[in-house]
Design goal:
Layout (H helix, E strand, L loop, with lengths): L6 H13 L3 E5 L5 E5 L1 H16 L2
Antiparallel strand pairs: 1-2
Length: about 55
Amino acid sequence: MIDIPTSASMSYHLNKLFDIGVIKYESGDQNRVFYKINGEKLRELFNIALKDILGK
């Protein structure tokens, strides 16, 4: 069974991802927010994690 996160939990985690530059957002019409992944930053973080895991 998959737990559906609460809106507070989603907001917390989205803010953390925003703070480290993994996601960007822009305002849309009618109070909508569009989130976009910053592929370069995500790739950079994955490479750091991979190096740490492999000990290189």
